[in-house]
Automatic annotation (TrEMBL):
The lineage of its organism: Eukaryota, Fungi, Dikarya, Ascomycota, Pezizomycotina. It comes from the Eukaryota. This is FAD/NAD(P)-binding domain-containing protein. It holds the Pfam family FAD_binding_3. Residues 2-353 form the FAD-binding domain. Keywords: FAD, Flavoprotein, Monooxygenase, Oxidoreductase. GO terms for molecular function: FAD binding; monooxygenase activity.
Amino acid sequence: MNVGIVGAGIAGLGAAVALRRAGHNVEVFEKSSFKAEIGAAILLTPNANRILRRWGFDFDKARPVDFKQFRFVHAQNLSMLAREDFEGVEEQFGDRMCAYHRVDLHSGLRELAEKEGAKIRLGAEAVDVQPGDGVVTFQSGEKVQKDFWILADGCHCPFLPKIADEDIPTKKIGKSVYRWLAPFDKVLEHPDAAKLWADQAPGFCTFFQPTTGIFMVTYPCRAGTLLNCAVFHNTRPDETQKDVWNASTTHEKVLDALDGYHDAVKHIPMAVEQVKVYTVTQRPPSTRLYRGRMLCIGDTVHHMLPSHAQGGCSALEDATALEILFVADTIASDSSSLASRLDLYQQLRLPRSATTQILSSTNPQLTMDKVAEKTEEIRRFYGGHLVDWPKGSGPWSREIREFWYGYDVVGEAEEAMKYRESGRLPEGWRWFGGGREGEVVMV
Ligand SMILES: Cc1cc2nc3c(=O)[nH]c(=O)nc-3n(C[C@H](O)[C@H](O)[C@H](O)COP(=O)(O)OP(=O)(O)OC[C@H]3O[C@@H](n4cnc5c(N)ncnc54)[C@H](O)[C@@H]3O)c2cc1C
């Protein structure tokens, strides 16, 4: 088939790699010129890194940092409040849990897509879509017709109502994030910061200030040369419009949020010239992912909170499902063949991505008891077995890791393909925790 992809983020580039590997002609249309550097890091967990490895991603070039622990530190006196050990995660789940500079991840994916033979057109902004005809109109006035379109234009996708039949607006949650990437050597110039990171395995170091409730997440990327920092705070009145990723803010506002923090932490934003602010948004799951010749993937259709680092990981899972479900010699380009395969895709992906989205809407300070309260919501999308979340465990606990990192999208999609003649996956398709075989309960 001739496939068009709108958007060259993680989802769009991943889909380009996947659909080339599946044997299709692929053209990606990206509105930006890729010049604006997105100065932030991103954590990918083993469910996503297994995918990158399958595609031959150049990890050495991207220089991600492996995560070995999560530390929850009192912001005022730097005492340790809690710690989660990630040792053994790589052995258990067959791949790394590591943080990338976003630019390094994006460049690596772009290289892979181009190596596979995908064409990428920059400065091409889609302004309208006709799902039934497979036509996308661009800002230039050009109309492009393809057999199959992937809409991967991110969380502000204006086309979703045409696909999902419902208007599911992206909403602000009242929280914003000050963010910056600090040179790690400058951070360590403060003697107490140096002590805090001395002889510590890499990973999260999250500071929490109990009197204000404001927390600051930090973790290293790019071979440990940079420290990614994010201060989650209540959105200030002058930040309400800043739902763009790259809005600038001032050091004074960051220091105001860090009121009561230890000097070693307040020193960290001073290590950079520019700090950014981003207003956090989320959207409930869409009940429909495709229409006509168009399919939504990634943040377009499952924009979620960053609390469990699964947005980008889910986008890569979506792409991999395409690679297996849309193998060229198993599908014709007529609309009824396409519709039945898209339906299979939706049966496979929607329960997983919607559940991930729902569970990600828990605040990082919430525990599994709160996660368990989401069961009813999850049941709208997923009919299989559910984990009995252990009371009191935190969001980076072993149980939650098993739920997310253990998911094998390749195996699941291959299994789903066995049902392509009937077009229906069996009732209660189970992938939660322990896979399809046997009782999938209580990780
Ligand atoms: C603060 C924060 C921290 C996060 N941390 C993590 C993490 O640690 N781990 C993780 O897995 N996820 C994380 N995420 C989520 C992750 O960043 C997203 O899920 C992921 O980037 C989504 O990728 P995407 O390709 O779907 O969308 P985007 O990255 O938004 O890409 C969309 C692309 O489409 C282009 N585009 C938009 N409109 C058009 C148009 N009309 N025509 C053509 N092109 C268009 C855009 O320019 C862009 O290149 C985090 C998110 C936030 C906000």
